[in-house]
Structures are given as C-alpha cells and as structure tokens.
Amino acid sequence: MELTFWGAARQVTGSMFLLKLEDDYQVLIDCGVDMANMSESMPLYPGASFPFDPTLVNVVLLTHAHLDHSGKLPNMYRDGYEGQILCTSPTMELTELLLRDSANINQRKIKAYHKKLAKGIDPESIPFDPKNLYNANDVQHTLEQFVPIQFHRRFNIKPGLHVTFIPTGHLLGAASILVEVEENGETKKLLFSGDIGRNDYPLLPDPEPMPEADYIICETTYGNRTHQSIADSTEEIADVIQRACVDKPGRLIIPAFSIGRTQAVIYIMHKLFEAGKLPPVKIFADSPLAQQSNHVYERMSSFLNEEAKEFKKEYGSLFNFETLKYIEQTKESEAISNYNEPCIIISSSGMMEGGRIQHHIRANMENSYCTILMVGFSAEGTLGNRLLNHSGSIRIGTREYPMKANIEKTDSFSGHGDVYDLLNFVHQQDAEKLKKVFLVHGEEEAMKDFSEQIQSEGYKVELPEKGQTFKL
User: Fold this and answer.
1) CA distances from residue 208 to 92, 174, 175, 198, 214 in whole angstroms, order as listed
2) Where is the Beta-Casp domain (predicted)?
3) Do 164 and 119 share a structural domain?
4) CATH number for the domain including 274?
C-alpha cells in the first residue's frame, strides 16, 4: 500500500493523507483547509479542487472537527466523491457547526467578489476562485454522509480493513485513528495521531494510551517547545483580568477559536466566578458559533472529564453565569466599542483571519487601555501571527494601523500537547519494532528538532514533502 501526504507536510495546517491499498481501495484521513495558504500550491487534478481524483476515494476518516482537518469535506462531494465520512459523534456535531459557518462566510466572499468585478477589478488579483467555495446545500449533502463511530470500537470497513477511534483529548470527540490493513496474509497497522491533547486540560479527558503500530503519523505543532502548566491557567487568567480590567482599568480582548478554546476560557472564568475570585466586570462572548458549540458541550458532557461532569452537576451549567453575556447580532457586536466600562471580550477566530475579532482589534489597536491576550497558536501569515510579532504597527487589509494596545500571550490554554506530550505518544511504540515515524502538522524547525530527538533514541523518521508518496 501507499501513503501520500497531501497536507500538513512541513507546515501546521491542512491535514490530508491518502492511503491507497493494493486493491486500489483509497482511504483519506482528514480533509483540512490550509489556513496559512488559502491558494492551492500543488497542480490540481482536472475538474477538482484537490491534487488527486476525489472520485477514486472510497472512505474518509476524520480525526476531529477543526477546519484545518475538516474544512474541505464539502469540496470532496462537489468534485465527485460518493463515499462516507467516519468519525465520533461529537466530531460529527461540531463539524456541522463549523461547515455551516464556513458556508455562510463563503456566501459573503462570493458577494464581495462580484462587487469587485463590477468595479472593474482584475479577477486574477482576487486571492480565491469562487468556484471552489461551497454553499449551504453542499454542506447539507456532506452532513448526510457522516457515520458516527464509537470510541474504542474496532470497526470493519471492508474485509481486511479495520479502524479504531481512540480518545486523544485536544477537542470534544477528537481521536487518534488506528488503521489495520490485511494484505497478502500480513497485517499492517498505521496510527494517525490527529492533534494530540494534554493531560488535565479544562473539560477534556486525558489522551488515552495508544496501541502498538507499524507506522505512526505524528503531529509536531509544539515539537520543540514546552507549555506553561495547565494548573496555572486559572490563576493566570485571574491575574490578567485584574491587571487589564481593574488595576488599569480597561478592556481585555481574548481572540479564541469558537470551538475548543472559547469553551476552556469561559469554563475557567465560570470556576473563578463561583469561587468569588472574578472581578465584577462584564464578559462578552461575541461568537454565535461559540454559543452553539457550548450547547454541544453541554449536551454531550458524557464525553468530558470527571471534574467537568461534577461541576455541571453542581452548578447546572458548564458555561452560563451572571456576568457573562452572549452576543448574537452584528449590531450588538459593533456596539461593544461604545461600552465605556471595563470589560472582557472573547471573540473568534483565534488566528484572527476572519470573524468578529477583526472588528474588535481594529477598534482597539490604538487604545493603550486595551490588553489583547493571545491564548492559542497562530500560523505564519495570519493576522494573529503578525500581531504577536508587530513592531509598532500592523497591516490589516490595505491599511497600516499604529499598535498601542498591550499584547500578552499564554500557551497554558493550548489544546495541543507540547514536546513532552508528543514524546509520550512516540515512546508508547517500541523503537525496534516500529518501522517508521512520519512527522506532520508542524513548522519545519519544530519538526527537525523533534526528529533529531527521537532519532537519537533509535526511531526511524521521515519528514514528508507535500505530495510525497511512501510505499509501506
């Protein structure tokens, strides 16, 4: 069989791996959007928005809901794919929210595209092709093809092909996937890490031990970095709120992904509130998608850790408390700029490449009484990354803005495991028995550093290029 790396190769986003068996049966593991480079850098297959023929793919396996793993699923069906998508039930529900939200964003992009054409702007200068943007009908068709699979169930896709979804933390429903292939009287096992979570992360269970495999495909987002302790996240948030909203007093803006990071942040604030440690400042959760995601977390709380289950049992809700206000309408969101009291604004997206957060950043860049707290990873090329590395000003669109707001960063809320969590994932495999470790989903420097570490321990390692195929 052959494994081709069509995404997350020497970069963080766009996970997409194609496994072709000897009988030509094809399995696609994840189908993500490249968040750092929205234009396709590989030659595309004729009539498709992929560098391979989607009509030849037989089944898709989805590790979790985030768009850099799920965001191109509707394109698969538009380009002729007719198979199913296998994932856990929480992943199915969260992916629905993200894909419907993406379709709405695409609709706005298409309208803007035609307005630019009407003004005589050269279509070649517009950084996307509207033909590649899916709509609500495409999403609905995609959702009808989802098949939820229980954690730990060894599911038989066809004779000689089994898959098992194993909890890995990171996000509600997220899984590593064990793929077992029987060919020529021999069984080969491939373990796809997905995004590896952390122990003791708010709301989520710890990553579970992984079975032995012949090959592992391992993410390396933080392949050369350690995280701050999760245990410190509650105190850290309380300290930032005190400095930004009480000592100053001003406003605290937290860009956070609507699904995953926002739930962790709001849950920690709820815990502070119930403990009497949260200052009496208004908290605006400015993301309708985050509110919908909260409902999924509440409804599927059986998938959460024991602490979260007990907290919900005691207080009736994981997220709702007195000083928290959800913002739904765009006008309400814009009106927050006129709110003169100290406040906290939690808005998406985490990398600031879209969503309401851009309005809040633009409105507060020159406000020295504003603190922007970055709580997650921002890929190169994104506004979030530029904000972290600004030198007195920052460009949004065609305009350069002076930067007077205070920028702070914490990785205690990162849903990705750090280098020690990644090493733990690899160390569960016997270096003498494991045939190969493929490193993906990381910046090249992190991959190289992590590669050197595990090679020194006897593991055989590959850092695939995009489009590179390996015979297994």
Assistant:
1) 20, 11, 10, 10, 19
2) 262-387
3) yes
4) 3.40.50.10890
